[in-house]
Each structure stands twice: as C-alpha cells, then as structure tokens.
C-alpha cells in the first residue's frame, strides 16, 4: 500500500517534468520515461508509450522496486527496471529522468566502446549535487544499447555500486539517465548534462 497524497505529489512532479523536457526538445516522439519515489517500496512512473509533453496524472502509475505494477492495469515504461535499480542502489534518490536529446544521442555514438565520457574543467560541473569544484573529473559511462533491459539494469547496478559519485550514464544511440534527491535536482542535472554535451560536441567541431 502507498499513500495516495504522496502519489499525487509524485505524479504532478512527473507531469511538470514532461512539460519542461518535451518543451526543450529532449523527449521527442513518446520517447523518455520519468519516475519519482513515493516511499521506500513504491515509485510513480510513466505508463509506456505516452506523449511526454501531454502527460496527465492518468499517464503515471505505481510500481514496486521489482518493477511490478501496484493497483494498476497499465503497462509501465519498458525501461522500468532501469529506474527501480537506481532507487535500490541509492536509497536517498527521489527522482529519475531518462531523456532522448539529439546531443546525448549523437555524443554517445562518438564515444568508443569501453570508453567513458570524461567531463573535466567545466564550472557547470558544480550543478551536480555534491560537486564543489570544476577541478574534478566526471566519468560518464556509455552502455551499449540493448532491448534486454534486465541485463542492462544489472550492468548499471554493478557499475554504480562501484561508482556512486557519478551522476548519470548514457546508452549509446539512445539517451541519458540521471537522478537526484528531488525532481528539481534531477531536472537541474538533465540541464547541466545538456549544456556539457553541447560543449563537448562544439569542442569536437572546432578542434576535430
Ligand atoms: C519511441 S522511443 C523507444 C522507447 C524508449 O526508448 C523510451 O524511452 C520510451 O519507452 P517507454 O516504454 O517508457 O514509453
Ligand atoms: Zn529510452
């Protein structure tokens, strides 16, 4: 059982996130999925296939941390396990956002297999929770795209148990996953990533 008021608050934060992210062009054509924690065992998450710029509370459902629907006949996001694994690894996380921007998609295809996206020397790194200086390096892993979501969820679980300080990851040719204590933190992380992706792509353009 979950608290209905907490569910309604989580659903509203997801609807608002969709309006913002779709408006920025980062969640086109029904892509992306969003979630917000309700309590230690339940997460509100987008129903699969919904238009993220036109979400209402009816497009948000509840799953448990194994990704099973709770009091819903809907099908949750095809990538539900990529969300629930993060809520298990990081008990303090309150929101997870997955986006499909052009820059995340293109940049992820330019990173060689087995390499991470290294972000270093940018003042905007401080937009990530817990980062106090531009002098550190962020190492954003790029996982190969796959339709085997349980296997990808397990890969991300293993990687982030070892690297809990990293704020997100890319899936090659697919998109970005990031998270935060609150939905506001998580939205700030998406924005920061998008700025940094643009900087990296622009650097490659002027200095190939
Ligand atoms: C049209 S995008 C293909 C699926 C995807 O990658 C995505 O993010 C949306 O899937 P969902 O099941 O969450 O709607
Ligand atoms: Zn996706």
Automatic annotation (TrEMBL):
Residues 12-201 form the Class II aldolase/adducin N-terminal domain. GO terms for cellular component: cytoplasm. It is an enzyme of class 4 (lyase). Keywords: Amino-acid biosynthesis, Lyase, Metal-binding, Methionine biosynthesis, Zinc. NCBIfam families: PRK09220.1 (NF006672), salvage_mtnB (TIGR03328). Catalyzes the dehydration of methylthioribulose-1-phosphate (MTRu-1-P) into 2,3-diketo-5-methylthiopentyl-1-phosphate (DK-MTP-1-P). This is Methylthioribulose-1-phosphate dehydratase. It comes from Marinobacter nauticus. The lineage of its organism: Bacteria, Pseudomonadati, Pseudomonadota, Gammaproteobacteria, Pseudomonadales. The gene is mtnB.
């Amino acid at each position: 059982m979950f608290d209905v008021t907490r569910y309604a608050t989580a659903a509203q934060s997801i609807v608002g996130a969709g309006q913002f992210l779709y408006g920025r062009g980062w969640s086109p054509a029904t892509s992306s999925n969003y979630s917000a924690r309700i309590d230690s065992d339940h997460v509100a998450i987008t129903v699969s296939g919904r238009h993220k710029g036109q979400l209402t509370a009816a497009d948000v459902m509840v799953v448990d941390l194994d990704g099973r629907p709770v009091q819903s006949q809907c099908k949750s996001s095809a990538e539900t396990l990529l969300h629930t694994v993060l809520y298990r690894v990081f008990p303090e996380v309150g929101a997870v956002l997955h986006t499909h921007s052009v820059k995340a998609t293109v940049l992820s295809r330019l990173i060689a297999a087995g390499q991470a996206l290294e972000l270093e020397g940018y003042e905007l790194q401080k937009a990530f929770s817990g980062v106090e200086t531009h002098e550190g390096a962020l190492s954003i892993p790029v996982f190969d795209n796959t339709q085997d979501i349980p296997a990808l969820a397990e890969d991300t679980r293993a990687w982030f148990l070892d690297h809990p300080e990293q704020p997100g990851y890319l899936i090659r040719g697919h998109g970005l996953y990031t998270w935060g204590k609150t939905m506001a933190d998580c939205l700030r992380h998406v924005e920061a990533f998008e700025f940094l992706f643009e900087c990296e792509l622009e650097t490659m353009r002027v200095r190939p």
